[in-house]
Every structure is written in C-alpha cells, then in structure tokens.
Amino acid sequence: MESNGVVSIGVDSHEVHVLAVDDSLVDRKVIERLLKISACKVTAVDSGIRALQFLGLDEQRKSSESDDFVPGLKVDLVITDYCMPGMTGYELLKKIKESSTFKEIPVVIMSSENILPRIDRCLEEGAEDFIVKPVKLSDVKRLKGYMTTRDVRAGSQENRELNVNGNGGGQGGGVGINNKRKLEEASDISSSPPSNSSASSPSSISSSQSPSSSPMSSPGMLDSPIRRIKMTGTE
Predict the structure, then answer these.
(1) 0.90 cut: is pTM over it?
(2) Residues 73 and 11 sit within 8 Å (Cβ to Cβ)
(3) In the predicted structure, residue 131 carries a pLDDT above the cut 60
C-alpha cells in the first residue's frame, strides 16, 4: 500500500523488517525489489522526516492514523540515501543514534557519489556500511549480516543485565556469592566425622609395629603348644 510517500510491502512482525528511505521513486523501487528477493519485508518512505515519523522520533509531528503507519512496528534495519531534501541521510543517522530506543538498529547509507570524507563521517557516526549506488543484490544480502550482529550484541547486553541483577548488582554481588560458597564448603569439611580408614587399614597396622620387635615377644607365639614343648626340651 502507498500513501503520502509511504510504501509497506507484506510487513510481518515475525520476519526481517527494513525501513528504506530515498527521495527517488526509481531508487526506492529498486531497493524494494532487492529486499523482497532477499526475503525481507520493507517499508519505504521518501524523506528523512517521514522516517522519523514512522519511528516515532519526530517531535514536531507524530504520525497519525491516516499515514498508514503501523504503531510500534519492529524495525530491524534502516537503509537511507545520503542526499535528500529537507534532511540528509547523515542527519537521519544522527537522530537514530541519539535515540535510546533505536540506537542499536543498524543504519546503512547509500549514495551515488563515492566521496571518502562523506563515507568516513557516516561510519564515525555509527553507520554499519556505506553503499555506492546502484545497489546490487549482493549488497542487500550483506545487510542481513548486520542484523545478525545486532542480535548478538543485544543478546550479550541482555545477558550482562541478567548477570548484574542476579548477582546483587555488579561485581561485588558475584564476589559475595563466591565467598559464601567457599564458606559453606569449609563448613562441610570441618563438620564431617574423621575417617576410620587409617584405623582399619592393614598397612597402617603393620607400619605401627616397631621393626626391632622380635617374633619371640609375641603373646601368641608364647602361648603356642609347639613353643612350650620346645622350651621344655631345652630346659
């Protein structure tokens, strides 16, 4: 559907959703076609202002019900032209990166001019990539890698937050849990009964006898009948 420079193609919340921004109708159609071939869902707008309205970042004019926007729709990536009237792609990039809600969304800049200072400025501001037009299918396929990287970063951040909350807040909580575990282990060791293995071990019994002791001094040997007979004969 298309209304006021906005085109949404088969948007499904379970699929990759790309917001494409370009003032050129021809370039928008090209990028829409390539994204559709790559199994991406796309919403296309014709200006940076319209992109901000779609994301809910336009303070002067929020999107209304007549704009055919879907409130709260998830956006996985933004691809925008650099040279646009009213707001450049660089200015749109800065607005997105300044937002606490959308700053983690990958932003890719497109331009028909391969100007190195322009490319460096966009990359320094946080752009994931800079594509020189015409956009090719290989360029669009590469975009999915940026979305995967973003998911990994988001997962790592979530794990860090869970670890911080679970450990009582920060490194101190983790140290406290480790110390508590060590104290419990030490308590278990000190409260356990002494081992009887040494008392019942045959090797410990034999080692406890003095090497200099003579078999003659053994009570068992003295009480033996054979021993008594020998002693009587000797006498």
Answers:
(1) no
(2) yes
(3) yes
